[in-house]
Amino acid sequence: MNKIKKLLTPFFIIIITSQVFAKDAPSSFADLAERLMPSVVNISTTTTIITNTNPFPGFKFPPGSPFEDMFKEFGEPQKRKSAALGSGFIIDEKGIVITNNHVIQDAEDIVVTVNGEKEYKAKIIGKDPLSDIAVLQIISKDKFTPVILGDSDKARIGDWVIAIGNPFGLGGTVTAGIISARNRSIGLSRYEDYIQTDASINSGNSGGPLFDMNGDVIGINTAILGKSGSIGIGFSIPSNSAKKVVSQLIEFGETKRGWLGVRIQVVTKEIADVEKLDKPRGALVASVAEKSPSDKAGIRAGDIIIEFNGTKIKEMKELPKIVAQTEVGKTVDVKIWRNKKEITKKIKLGRLETSEDFKEEPKKVETDILEIKSLKINVRLLNDKDIQKRKLPKKTTGLVITDIDKDSPINYLNINDIIVEVQKKKIKSIKDLEKIVEAALKSNQKTILIAIYNNQNQRRYIGVKLD
Fold first, then answer.
1. How many other CB atoms are found less than 10 A from the CB of residue 194?
2. Hey, where are the domains in the chain?
3. pTM, to two decimals
4. Distance separating alpha carbons of residues 111 and 159, to the nearest angstrom
């Protein structure tokens, strides 16, 4: 008998353990869907599109020509109405609706259908293209059924979710699935932290809600992967990312985001090695806008921001989101890694929406081309024409790459890229570059740090392995 007990004990432990961690799938979503449907709206918009049908724009028949009246209408711009469909959801009984900005972009008329029945006209309270969020107001004195913006940070991969929306204009449609992934970036907007779901999302679902099993909105359905329709990969803006944008749009009609005034890039392993940083982390400052909050606080190109306002920056993409969500005018502590040590700067944040671009200043023209044998490239000095044409920052100095050998250690760069720094030292002449590279080679240094402006005029740091 004791032997049987010993054999059965592990079996019971396995059963109990599996019951603790596994949850049964919902037997039905019907009750939840029925409760939520009155809060989800279908949105239709109308936009006027002007097209020019004249194959010879600017051409006119001479006055008195017999063809003048015949082709008069043919040459004039033609106007036509274009309709678009989307989804949204109500967050206030007075009829405040959240949707995507791209759903109502350029719309002249907006009609909101509630619970698939009654139609109302709506107006835009505010919209934000950077996060692709818009807030509408239904024009009516009726009271509506709102839903709650929940806590998306509590949503876990594998949790059940349902999406309700207006796919292909079919009206209130419910689909179910799970959260497939978190923190996705797909290159659609500046601030991305998407929830990925396999709940079926199609054209027309944009702006609709993604609900958890409590009926709280944890995401705003925004994008799908695949041109032909849902393939089980859809993306939603997390509710926690949307809350501050929505509240600002309701209060001010616009957003007020914090602004540092830096262009940043990823800290690679090579860059971390050169900077003697323990591991690749933080955000590397590629350039600093003149008279920006960072410029006034003494932040320099080449600094690595490793902590912002008490939050450690693990990856470069985390910084823009954290800064944008910080109050404009607030003074924050920013920890940076400079010259192989950590220092702290106090920065008073500006406002992104009112920030200015860099200003440019002409420079002297010098066009002599010389070879840098150590890097196997040809370069010339940056001149005023380059600065005017490429709209480079004030006081920029550097060398324009004119030719690159196939076996150059920087053969992955492009002709017309501009080398502006090597080992954190500004390059003002061709001799500057030669001396720094030669000194690195003599010291048996395996990697050097080069700062460039690429062909898109973006300032970037590159770790270069020397032969």
1. 23
2. 31-55+76-138, 152-252, 262-354, 369-465
3. 0.67
4. 34
Q: Which segments of 56-119 does DSSP mark as H helices, in order? A: 101-104
Supply the residues annotated as catalytic: 102, 132, 206
The fold of the 152-252 domain, in CATH, is Thrombin, subunit H (2.40.10)
Angle at 410 between CA 408 and CA 414, to 5 degrees: 105
Is 193 within 8 Å of 214 (Cβ atoms)?
no
Q: What does the mean pLDDT of the chain come to?
A: 83
Residue 67 has pLDDT above 60, yes or no: no
CATH code linked to domain 31-55+76-138: 2.40.10.10
CATH of 369-465, one of 3.30.200.20, 1.10.10.10, 2.30.42.60, 3.40.50.300: 2.30.42.60
pLDDT digits (tens, 9 = 90+) for 256-286: 999 999 999 999 999 999 999 999 999 999 9
φ/ψ of residue 464, rounded to 5 = -110, 125
pLDDT greater at residue 7 or residue 293: 293
Higher-confidence position of 65 and 32: 32
